[in-house]
Amino acid sequence: MDLGLKDKVVLITGGSKGIGFACARAFGQEGAKVAIVSRDPANLARAYEQLKQEGLQVHRTRADLHEPHSAVDIVEEVSTAMGPIDVLINSAGAARRYDPETLDADAFKATMEAKYFPYIYPQQEVLRRMAERAKRGGGEPGTIVNIIGMGGKIASDIHIAGGAANAALMLATVGLAHYYARYGIRINAINPGPTLTERVEEAVRLEATLQGIESAEALARGQAKTPLGRYAKPEEIADVALFLASRRASYVTGAIVPMDGASAPLI
């Protein structure tokens, strides 16, 4: 099936590992020109070399997206090196967990800076440029896919601040999708549940230590709680991102797609 992604310029924040890296590989395999962003130089170099060895078109840039000027800079850099950005995949940032009794103003602020703004800053700059292109009648409208954790829908005692950031990102996704639809720009989000990434592996090891069991047993117990009987693979999240960014999803915008193996039966 031709997804119409060949030679599209795809910017992926958090593209050096986990779901972001899976997206980079998936889009590259579709013939897209992929730019990955990470603040960790070692992860960035490792991901870049792996993608290059697979024969994929890839550009790398190191940036800390907590600052708006950094987002503007990377969008300019990628646009200059590869051409106008057609697709933005936001998969950067991670929110720290807190004991609710330790939450204070600084914790809430730090969480928003860690999770909310690293999505909003590049998204706003990319949207500005996509809208300008649309007004000039230049090329196909762009698309954005935000990878946002399920914590924005389901409250957890230790993830209140992070969940609030995720909920805010979901609202921004659907609100901006409503406005920018007039330019043909589509904005959607994916809500992954537990996915077999380094972050989940770390959480499994911690859980195993707390329970005094082996990591394999902790993982098995966690997966058994999922109706599908397992956690997601990063590649499965990437496949949905591919579809949402493609011409096959040309009438899909403002959607929040759950991918949690039916763990949270919400409407």
UniProtKB/TrEMBL annotation:
Keywords: Oxidoreductase
Keyword Hydrolase listed: no
Gene Ontology MF, one: oxidoreductase activity
Signal sequence interval, chain numbering: none
One Pfam family this sequence matches: adh_short_C2
Family as reported in the entry's similarity comment: Belongs to the short-chain dehydrogenases/reductases (SDR) family.
Stated name of the protein: Short-chain dehydrogenase/reductase SDR
Organism annotation: Paraburkholderia ribeironis
